[in-house]
Amino acid sequence: MTKIVVIGAGVAGLTTSYLLAQKGYDVSIIAKNLPGDIDPEYTSPYAGAEWYSLASKDEIFEQELDKPGYFELRKLAKDPKSGIHIIDSYEYIKFEDADNYEFPWFVDFVEGFEMINDRSKLPDDCKFGFKFSGLTATTTIYLYYLLNKCVELGVTYKRYKLDHINDAFSLHHSGEKSDYVINCTGLLAGKLNGVNDPLVYPVRGQTLLVTNTPKKQLTVSNFEGYDDEMLYIIPRKEGGTILGGCFQKHSTVQEVDTALIQRISERAVKYCPELIDPSINHNKNYLDIVKVNVGFRPYRKGGPRIEIDKQNSKIIHNYGAGGSGYQSSYGMSGKTIELLEKSIKLNGSKSKL
Ligand SMILES: Cc1cc2nc3c(=O)[nH]c(=O)nc-3n(C[C@H](O)[C@H](O)[C@H](O)COP(=O)(O)OP(=O)(O)OC[C@H]3O[C@@H](n4cnc5c(N)ncnc54)[C@H](O)[C@@H]3O)c2cc1C
């Protein structure tokens, strides 16, 4: 059985490990952080974790990464243990954006796509909207779910912080040298020796977790004077909602921005009044904030790195998911495994020469 060490237990490392184990590989996960940890360098627990592809019409590679997740995560939503649920996802378009608005690339394949043109169903400053059947994961529950799925298939996991990527080869649970290493280190790919990718950078996001629960997911963009902000409302399966947010490039500020809490709260209530409607889901008539989160998306200039290492063909990289790590998890991991199998073939034929 081919021995693999996967570095990282975020959504990328866990999804890759799960898919590898399903294919019969002998996998050990090595990670500084594991599900349950809260650490600014461990992004996955902080996500809104909706499926809403951010790829533009020209970003064909990113589209290919996001598309499989729509179907695979919907399948997992059928398992009540996964923490994933299917919910209608709305977007409202403001008057000033309406004429030049480009519909997202995915409207052709998502289920239940419908236009909203009835102005009585829209906020005053929005000309039209649309909805489709979306999905979202409660990150902490889904990460544990993935880890447990891995363990059921024989994957082991160990907390360990690697100084150099090559050290991973000696950490397979069998005690023997690992045949391959898969690098799913997210933001820390910039700091891991042997990788030290200078293209990785953080994009700060601040969100609120509230107990209020609307019946829909919602996105609204274009808030004057705040180019790096948008409104997203992501209700959780178990109740409660993530309200966001911002996309602050290169910011590593961990402190909460109180003015931003205020802006997010005002926008949320304005565009989704059902959040504070007691006739819906027993909501409080005010936003009941449980927690304010600050997380750092692992962006990479030029896009995610899914690549066989140029120096060592036994290392495959899978990081740099940016703001899309959940929705692209199946696409990124699938492509990573394709590369692994290509490398196994090449290395096999080399050793026969
Ligand atoms: C506010 C916010 C909202 C978001 N919303 C969404 C959304 O709606 N939809 C979506 O799809 N995505 C969303 N994202 C993005 C998503 O969270 C990330 O893309 C994803 O979590 C990245 O996962 P990862 O596994 O690559 O990295 P991480 O989760 O950071 O995992 C990296 C792993 O590598 C380990 N590691 C790193 N270096 C070492 C080392 N030297 N030795 C050992 N272990 C190491 C870490 O300990 C960790 O286990 C959001 C992110 C934020 C912050």
Automatic annotation (TrEMBL):
InterPro entries: DAO (IPR023209), FAD-dep_OxRdtase (IPR006076). One of its GO terms (cellular component) is cytoplasm. FAD binds at residues 43-44, 185. Pfam families: DAO (PF01266). D-dopa binds at residue 323. Residues 3-333 form the FAD dependent oxidoreductase domain. The keyword Coiled coil does not apply. One of its GO terms (molecular function) is D-amino-acid oxidase activity. Its cofactor is FAD. GO terms for biological process: D-amino acid catabolic process. Keywords: FAD, Flavoprotein, Oxidoreductase. Belongs to the DAMOX/DASOX family. This is D-amino acid oxidase. It comes from Ascoidea rubescens DSM 1968.
